[in-house]
Structure prediction request, 398 residues.
Amino acid sequence: MPPTSPTLTAERILEATEEVLRRHGPAKATVVDVARALGVSHGSVYRHFRTKAALREAVTKRWLDRTTDLLAEIAGAPGLDAETRLRDWLAALFAAKRRKAFDDPELFATYSVLTTETAETVVSEHIADLTGQLTAIVRDGVASGAFTAADPSVAARALFRATDRFHDPHYAREWEQPGVQDDFDALVGLLLRGLRARA
Amino acid sequence: MPPTSPTLTAERILEATEEVLRRHGPAKATVVDVARALGVSHGSVYRHFRTKAALREAVTKRWLDRTTDLLAEIAGAPGLDAETRLRDWLAALFAAKRRKAFDDPELFATYSVLTTETAETVVSEHIADLTGQLTAIVRDGVASGAFTAADPSVAARALFRATDRFHDPHYAREWEQPGVQDDFDALVGLLLRGLRARA
DNA sequence: CAGCTGACAGATATTGAATTCTGTCAGCTG
DNA sequence: CAGCTGACAGAATTCAATATCTGTCAGCTG
Prediction:
């Protein structure tokens, strides 16, 4: 049962934790389960993570960072005008969240729980990362004369807030309803109209 | 203890229910409590409301309608241009929710629970009412040449969605943080810019 | 006889005793 | 001696027995 043991590393613990969470769900996943999956005693897990909460936080961060990295590519895409990048970025964020929620509802529910329990540190950093990417796009747009915005970072926050419904897990159950894509397109259209510089 | 009994009416039951909910909270408020507060047997309550869920739904509707009525006055205010009414309306919605959340946190939490449990019927009607008011304002703006919008009702939905963060109870805990008013103003500014007709 | 009561069956919630889990640490092992 | 183990205390969770609540209805009352 216990798999081969090529030295116990934080990374291997995180992988095992993700697997245990997927199997048992957030309510029943225990540190002992994680240790068992790795073929070690649970004391060893505590050598790498001071508390169970810290372990869950690290796993959550990993998960959120995967989305951040994906979007960073779009934010920094070369040769595209700011408006296209902004549209693509917002669409990619929505698509990524929707895909996660649809493809593996159990795991998505698990991470929804994790993000509410770790709210303060990890999630707000994640949001800061994302609005940072948005700020870069808006700033480019202002520089190229495509957008008007007194303060790009303020505009970026406003964009992120305005689209909450399309990326906050709290609204996930609405993402499968018929008209969502139209609602999303209408909102993005309105926001871009507000951002565009006047002729 | 039992108060004077001037015939048992649905309205009196709703008042008593609200009081019981305020006292005991949503988890512990029972139909028997409501009956006791009215000095009747709980069987009598079931004469007016088929189930406990129906009673809670009716109380929730009452609560939501109070906000709807308040905003209807602004939506229909005579002699004000559409942009001012739209600004006022959105500000009034945010202010009303924030006031409720701040003045009586327990009751607000109670109704937050009620709205999630009765989600489908009552709440979606409430949202339909509100976006209906928004649609009327946008339509007026289009008619007067102040706004551009292919379909006012689509624009109204987008406006309502975009401002979710400032009226959905789910975000209530963020309404007391320092920068919220600025965030709100920035978002409304961006949305109005998007709505305004070009010169 | 319209409106109310209160006893009742089944569903739901509460309680506390027993189990399981978290986090520590003295000592084992390679 | 760095890294791991496993027994342990206190915290948290489960589970089953017990109590309370919901919804009904036959019959009482004004």
